[in-house]
């Protein structure tokens, strides 16, 4: 009986040792970060089904500079915001404009890119200004700054809004005539028109120029924001930041 207990004790020790070994050697990332999935040139599906873009490269460079690891999920802009707010994600980077309204629920890093919205219409459209949208149907991407601007303008001008979950869906709605126009971040739509040869054009001036920021749920992950800011400062100083923008045909 004593031998049986001894064998049982040894077996339990071995099982615990194996479990500890497996746990101690698991490759758990330091942070879980979410992003958009179709917002070129900031994040988009590239070769080998891998997400690439300015945001992806900046985050990778900052993480390398600051010595942290992360697990990336490209789920869409609205879903990424929801993941951060629910605590499912530690942070998000998705061409997210820093605004006073968003600061009520998010803490932001220093700005890492400045952009603004512009009106987008079919290449053959005769629409020349915002008031030409009166009594028409305009497309908007859910939860974005462009959508907020479209909503404010619809009250002033008088038009209907159809909402879409992604930029490509919104562009297609304008190209096919489902909607007469949309508003999009200038750098994003310029990249799309040039890269994908879309039959779209921009009209008018850029409005609401603002900074993009890396974001966490308000009151959490202050250390991660500090790391991002420090890394961003370093990659700007050593030229890596400009190198990343140039890779996608952009400048600061």
Commentary on this structure:
- The chain has 252 residues and is α/β, with parallel strands linked by helices.
- 41% of the residues lie in helices and 24% in strands.
- It is built from 8 helices and 12 strands.
- It has helices at residues 2-24, 54-66, 77-86, 145-158, 167-175, 186-196, 222-237, 240-247; strands at residues 31-35, 44-45, 51-52, 70-74, 91-92, 106-108, 113-122, 137-141, 160-164, 181-185, 200-212, 215-217.
- Strands 9-8-10-7-11 form a 5-stranded mixed sheet, sandwiched between helices. Strands 4-1-5 form a 3-stranded parallel sheet. The protein has a two-stranded antiparallel ribbon with strand order 2-3.
- Strand 8, helix 4 and strand 9 (160-164) form a beta-alpha-beta unit.
- Helix 2 packs across helix 7 and helix 2 runs antiparallel to helix 8.
- The longest helix has 23 residues, at 2-24.
- Residues 1-26 have low confidence and may be disordered.
């Amino acid at each position: 009986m004593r031998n049986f207990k001894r064998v049982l004790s040894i077996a339990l020790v071995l099982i615990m040792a194996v479990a500890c070994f497996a746990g101690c050697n698991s490759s758990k990332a330091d942070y879980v970060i979410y992003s958009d999935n179709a917002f070129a040139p900031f994040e988009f599906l590239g070769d080998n089904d891998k997400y690439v873009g300015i945001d992806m490269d900046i985050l990778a460079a900052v993480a390398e500079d600051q010595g942290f690891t992360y697990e990336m999920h490209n789920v869409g802009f609205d879903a990424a915001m929801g993941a951060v707010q629910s605590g499912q994600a530690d942070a998000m980077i998705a061409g997210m404009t820093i605004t006073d309204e968003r600061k009520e629920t998010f803490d932001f890093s220093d700005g890492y890119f400045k952009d603004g919205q512009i009106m987008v219409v079919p290449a053959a459209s005769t629409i020349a200004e915002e008031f030409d949208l009166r009594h028409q149907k305009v497309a908007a991407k859910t939860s974005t700054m462009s959508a907020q601007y479209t909503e404010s303008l619809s009250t002033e001008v008088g038009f209907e809004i159809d909402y879409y979950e992604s930029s490509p869906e919104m562009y297609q709605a304008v190209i096919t005539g489902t909607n007469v126009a949309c508003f999009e971040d200038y750098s994003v739509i310029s990249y799309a028109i040039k890269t994908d040869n879309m039959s779209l054009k921009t009209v008018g001036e850029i409005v609401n120029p603002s900074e993009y920021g890396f974001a966490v749920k308000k009151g959490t992950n202050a250390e991660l924001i500090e790391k991002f800011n420090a890394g961003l400062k370093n990659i700007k100083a050593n030229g890596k930041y400009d190198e990343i923008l140039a890779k996608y045909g952009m400048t600061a």
